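Researcher: Hi, I'm a grad student and pretty new to this. My advisor asked me to get structures for two proteins we've been looking at. I'm not sure of the right format, so I'll just paste the first sequence and hope you can take it from there.
Model: That works fine. Here's the first sequence with its structure tokens right after it:
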Amino acid sequence: MSWPIKPTDRFISEVPYETLFTPGEFASRAAFTELHRRMRRTIFHMAKLSGAPTREAAAAVDKVFLEFAPEFPGNPPALGLRRLARIVKKTIGKDAFEPFYFYAQAAIYYMDDPLEREMLSRLYEMGSHISEARLAIEFRLSGEAETGRILTAAVASFRLAQQQLPADELRLMTEGYFPL
């Protein structure tokens, strides 16, 4: 699989993580805002799973991004998530940090089909708190059967996309991880 277009020709919400960490690809503020959008729920849920009340989990998310801001975008771009992960571990505790949960989304942004990418991204954002019926409504699909077919195709695309991850660490962290 190879990109038919350059990352800069894509919307910021569609580019791989390392593009967000690449100086000059997008304005730093826009890239940081997009990184925050993608990762805030993941960090929040990891903090909640560690036993933090909602208010403390939300504060942990704020603390992570405030501490990470001076390091953004940083080099090398392929290890941007690792730099963020270091701060997340320090903030919520390494026992609460779930590597699969944190890194698994990286491959989504290498998927070619926008519907598969958006649906799998939404599934990750909501975790087990969203049903196929709800996804069908949100994506204006005919029902759970169509949603199931798209999710099955999305998982196949996700597996293929894992092979395109730029950093060996990311490939290892997502290897064998299937969202369904």
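Researcher: Oh nice, that was easy. Here's the second one.
Model: And its structure:
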Amino acid sequence: MFVQSRAETNHDHKNGVALQQRRGNSETLVQWQNGRQRWVSTADLKGTIVLIGNDTNSDDYEREL
């Protein structure tokens, strides 16, 4: 599942993959299609957030924005 950023203006930062979350899930580490990784506000993401490589129950981390 790919996520998009509502706040990002850089065209290269699209089709991101969510890797992990921190600060009570308020920030998500996203790797964009150009290879860059950034912590972004989870509220600024659109799409279904599914953390890649997560070894816990996916129900805790999957949600629709």
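Researcher: Is there anything I should tell my advisor about the second?
Model: You could mention this: The mean pLDDT is 81.
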